[in-house]
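Severity: low
Component: inverse-folding endpoint
Summary: output formatting inconsistent between runs
Steps to reproduce: submit the following structure tokens with default settings.
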């Protein structure tokens, strides 16, 4: 479809007017296209040649009139680092409408009623991080929001220093957060709370529509998909960094990419967010804090269904999370099903990797090629003994498995490439000089992280020492 033929709808605007602020995007000065995502365009049924037009830049800049568009920002609340903030909302993301079940949002498109003291902008570096990482998550088969395109500009934005503004067009089947429910509940707006729950069920969980006690079922669904998402993050070594309840998707998606990181050498206590001094959102704490966030959601849903029922649902979270984690880890280890002793094998793998300061991604990928010859694996750790001991146990476990089948499964489950922060920084540094070729390259490996890509081999090794375990600031 041509841009001029698009017709947007706005189902969210059927909810109470207190839930959003109708606000038009404020375009950036002198915008230019940095990258367009053909796969997402296909999903939205937008013609590929449209992505190369001036109109597409205007579209991403919020300047193109699309039929049916009624731009708005969403209101929500949220627990930030454990403290309740009664009124947050999209402070710089403006929804422009819905296409083919996907809600389109321009992030960095100016101030809204919820901007507080912010300028409504997003800088180039954080926009590149969101753009590439949402594609990388998709490549890793982990539920995520998407991006249709990214533009840069000459628009000056003040952070620690002067930077330039950018916009990503974010695309998702839902932008509703745990915090959206917390907003209505805390305002005592129970009719609106119910309407929001019905809206989410209709959009994201249609199979529970019309069932007995749909709100308890909704909580159950969100509990299950959240536990699965946590298991996926943990198995790939992803640290989100800001798991406030306003950054928790009701649809179980990875959402709001900020100071995230992939593990370099394996460290349970890794904290990617510089401002997180207590390590609330450390790598190892993610499944725990997700459960705490579910508790906040449960409270918010309590006017709609029995608290006791939801508490019973939440009790099984730990079991479900562990089951998912073992499922994904067994796949990564090439094990068929889970046998007695596998959970210990997995736990001891983590401990061994941490003790030996082994690069997590590199080790798992190297293990995917393993057929008994250990040199390459041993070279990834500081010393050999604990790794040899663990490999002896692994050898015993895989003895009866078909090697070709195991290797194939492992190569499809252990990415050769993850977008570590130092790699993303290369793309950012080049982009800030007007060179988008590194971004283009990273986009390719983001889409197919399990492929070999010999031309990009230099990004597949362990993180150079000087770049390991760096923290990122939230300023974006
Ligand atoms: P985040 O941690 O990026 O999810 O942001 C937390 C809240 O702050 C959200 O409500 C954002 O919309 C808002 N926010 C972040 N940066 C800005 C900005 N530059 N201008 C306005 N609001 C912002
Ligand atoms: Mg957020």
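Observed output (run 2 of 3):
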């Amino acid at each position: 479809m041509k841009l001029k033929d698009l017709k947007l709808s706005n189902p969210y605007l059927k909810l109470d007017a207190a839930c959003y602020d109708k606000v038009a995007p404020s375009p950036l000065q002198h915008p230019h296209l940095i990258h367009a995502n053909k796969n997402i365009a296909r999903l939205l049924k937008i013609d590929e040649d449209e992505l190369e037009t001036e109109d597409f830049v205007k579209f991403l800049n919020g300047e193109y009139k699309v039929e049916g568009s009624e731009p708005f920002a969403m209101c929500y609340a949220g627990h930030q680092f454990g403290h309740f903030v009664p009124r947050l909302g999209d402070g710089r993301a403006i929804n422009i409408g819905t296409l083919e079940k996907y809600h389109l949002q321009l992030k960095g498109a100016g101030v809204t009623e919820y901007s507080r003291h912010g300028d409504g902008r997003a800088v180039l570096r954080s926009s590149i991080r969101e753009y590439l990482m949402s594609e990388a998550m998709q490549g890793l088969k982990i539920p995520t929001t998407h991006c249709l395109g990214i533009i840069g500009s000459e628009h000056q934005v003040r952070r620690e220093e002067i930077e330039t503004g950018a916009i990503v067009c974010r695309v998702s089947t839902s932008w509703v957060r745990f915090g959206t429910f917390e907003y209505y509940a805390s305002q005592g707006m129970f009719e609106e709370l119910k309407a929001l729950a019905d809206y989410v069920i209709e959009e994201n969980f249609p199979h529970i529509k019309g069932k007995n006690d749909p709100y308890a079922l909704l909580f159950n669904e969100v509990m299950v998909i959240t536990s699965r998402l946590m298991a996926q993050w943990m198995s790939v070594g992803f640290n989100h960094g800001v798991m406030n309840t306003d950054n928790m998707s009701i649809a179980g998606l990875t959402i709001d990419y900020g100071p995230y990181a992939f593990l370099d050498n394996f460290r349970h206590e890794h904290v990617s967010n510089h401002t997180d001094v207590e390590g609330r959102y450390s790598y190892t704490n993610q499944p725990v804090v997700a459960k705490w966030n579910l508790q906040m959601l449960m409270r918010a849903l309590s006017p709609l269904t029995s608290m006791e029922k939801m508490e019973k649902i939440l009790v099984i979270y730990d079991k479900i999370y562990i089951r998912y984690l073992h499922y994904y880890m067994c796949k990564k280890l090439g094990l068929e099903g889970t046998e007695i002793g596998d959970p210990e094998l997995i736990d001891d793998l983590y401990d061994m990797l941490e003790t030996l300061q082994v690069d997590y991604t590199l080790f798992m990928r190297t293990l995917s090629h393993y057929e008994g010859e250990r040199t390459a694996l041993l070279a990834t750790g500081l010393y050999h003994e604990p790794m040899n001991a663990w490999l002896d146990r692994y050898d015993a476990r895989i003895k009866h498995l078909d090697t070709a089948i195991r290797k194939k499964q492992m190569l499809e489950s252990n990415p050769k490439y993850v977008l570590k922060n130092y790699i993303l920084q290369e793309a950012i540094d080049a982009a800030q000089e007007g060179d988008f070729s590194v971004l283009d390259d990273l986009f390719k490996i983001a889409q197919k992280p399990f492929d070999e890509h010999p031309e990009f081999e230099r990004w597949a090794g362990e993180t150079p020492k000087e770049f390991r375990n760096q923290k990122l600031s939230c300023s974006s």
